[in-house]
Automatic annotation (TrEMBL):
One of its GO terms (molecular function) is G-protein beta-subunit binding. Keywords: Cell membrane, Lipoprotein, Membrane, Transducer. Belongs to the G protein gamma family. The keyword Secreted does not apply. This is Guanine nucleotide-binding protein subunit gamma. One of its GO terms (cellular component) is heterotrimeric G-protein complex. G proteins are composed of 3 units; alpha, beta and gamma.
């Protein structure tokens, strides 16, 4: 796409992109990290990878038998 454009068109496109980016609200990384940690810790009690799945809700446990490789 850029190969078919002149240098002037490319610079105009870059300028338009920079104008969009300058109006983007920014927050410090430390704030974003704190929010992410709080979000993940809020979901922690219901996380099946951390807590595990009870036997009555686990579709892979029970009387289904299993696979035996001999």
């Amino acid at each position: 796409m850029a190969r078919d454009m002149s240098d002037k068109e490319i610079l105009k496109m870059e300028l338009e992109q920079l104008k969009k980016e300058v109006s983007t609200p920014r927050t410090p990384v430390s704030t974003n990290c704190a929010e992410t940690i709080a979000f993940v810790e809020g979901l922690l009690p219901n996380d099946p990878l951390i807590k595990g799945v009870s036997d009555d809700k686990n579709p892979y446990k029970g009387d289904k038998g299993g696979c035996v490789i001999t």
